[in-house]
Amino acid sequence: MRIIGPDYLVFGVDDLEGSKTYLEDFGLKPVQLDDTGWLYEALDGTGVIIRPKSDPSLPAPLETKNMLRQQVYGVEDASVLDEIEAEMSKDRRVTRLSDGSLEFKDDLGFELRFQVTIRRELSMPAEKINAPGAPAQRAPNELGVTDDMAALPRSLSHVVLFVPDMEKVVSFFCDRLGFVVTDVLTGAGPFLRPQANDDHHTHFFIRTPAYMQGCEHLAFHMGGPTELMVAGDRFVRKGYQSFWGPGRHKFGSNWFWYFNSPLGVHFEYDADMDKHDDTWVAREAPNGPEASQIFLLQWREKWAPSGGPEGGSGA
């Protein structure tokens, strides 16, 4: 099944105004959907939809009261929706909406929606680097960083879910929807990608007790490590709390920087993720600090060297 990945994640939030401010400060563009709903989109149109948690148009909440209400996935074309409907209708109720999209629950009770993707094709340069031994990527006098450089989320990258039954959820996504396991952190869970996406992962599942079920974090691709660092630094300076990072993961090789949010989940900037095809053989490593990152940094206020207590080097 030619599933691309998440188009939107839908949340029913406690603090609508605080969530709106957070998402705009994170770098997402606000689009008002109706009187109570807002889409905050990345440059390709993917993003996050928020409504007050009492909004009757929202799917029912999880029993854990996690604020995630629905995961919306994009597929290549309408024929893929027909495939999904035929498969899912074997053992559950599937609702086809007026726009052709499908709604149903997975085997753990998460609300899912599948639609022909709304992703806009991006044509933007990646981060350019100059390195000895390789042709220069930036022309003479072309600067690598400026104070006002753009650093905006380009695309919704992946979602990480706390799940109480790992075997059931992996079987559902792999056996029923055609996802592939790319790597496994033993003691935590697997990374998955769908057939129409060669990113290392669009999903990571973490085994938890049932009372924790829900979304743990979601991530947005940036244009490179420098954009990630610039966006994260600007976000910290606006008063938001860094949770983990900046650093670089081992599995996926993506740079990361996670932040706390009023949506009850962590938001992540990521950059430079590995690509895989069907020849890739999944790796496995014990979950822990060594497997989770190749290095981890910590933000601090800007600093500069000086020549001594008087500001000079002395002579």
From TrEMBL:
<dbReference type="InterPro" id="IPR029068">
    <property type="entry name" value="Glyas_Bleomycin-R_OHBP_Dase"/>
</dbReference>
<dbReference type="InterPro" id="IPR037523">
    <property type="entry name" value="VOC_core"/>
</dbReference>
<keyword id="KW-0560">Oxidoreductase</keyword>
<keyword id="KW-0223">Dioxygenase</keyword>
<dbReference type="Pfam" id="PF00903">
    <property type="entry name" value="Glyoxalase"/>
</dbReference>
<feature type="domain" description="VOC">
    <location>
        <begin position="155"/>
        <end position="272"/>
    </location>
</feature>
<dbReference type="GO" id="GO:0051213">
    <property type="term" value="F:dioxygenase activity"/>
</dbReference>
<dbReference type="InterPro" id="IPR004360">
    <property type="entry name" value="Glyas_Fos-R_dOase_dom"/>
</dbReference>
<protein>
    <submittedName>
        <fullName>Glyoxalase</fullName>
    </submittedName>
</protein>
